[in-house]
Write a structure and sequence with these properties.
Elements (H helix, E strand, L loop, with lengths): L2 H10 L3 H5 L3 E9 L4 E6 L4 E6 L2 E6 L1 E3 L2 E2 L2 E6 L6 E5 L2 E2 L1 H23 L3 E2 L4 E5 L6
């Protein structure tokens, strides 16, 4: 069996997004002004991070089979109004177009949905401006 046949066999058993993507994504968190307290919760309300801006953290992208994971970011700072920002997962272009070209049905319906690599955050950042508190 030639190397080309082996490579084709391996590629037919994996999803395209799983080849180029990952199950987590590095997300940066910023606020203006900096130094705000931020609490990050997943879609079930479970706290996954508590810190101050600026920060960055790796977030799981998969909530379940064919379900991307969404997060809420709650920003607070004395003297400023609090703010909540939603970060929603989106389908990766590698999942959509890469599986048409390379991954096939196995990648589309099995590998990428199971690994969670089919999801992305665009942009992979959460930035907010905090307004001064009303007096």
């Amino acid at each position: 069996m030639g190397r080309g046949a082996i490579l084709a066999g391996v590629l037919s058993c994996v999803g395209c997004a799983s080849i180029v993507g990952d199950t987590t994504e590095l997300v940066t968190i910023n606020s203006d002004p900096a130094g705000a307290e931020v609490v990050v919760r997943d879609e079930k309300g479970v706290e996954v991070f508590h810190g101050t801006t600026p920060a960055s953290l790796n977030l799981e992208k998969k909530a379940g089979y064919f379900e991307g994971k969404d997060y809420t970011f709650e920003f607070t700072k004395p003297g400023f109004q609090s703010r909540v920002v939603l970060l929603e997962s989106e389908t990766s272009n590698w999942y959509l177009w890469g599986n048409i070209a390379f991954g096939g049905l196995i990648g589309w319906f099995i590998v990428d949905p199971i690994t969670g690599a089919m999801w992305k955050y665009e942009p992979p950042a959460v930035t907010t401006n905090l307004d001064p508190a009303r007096t």
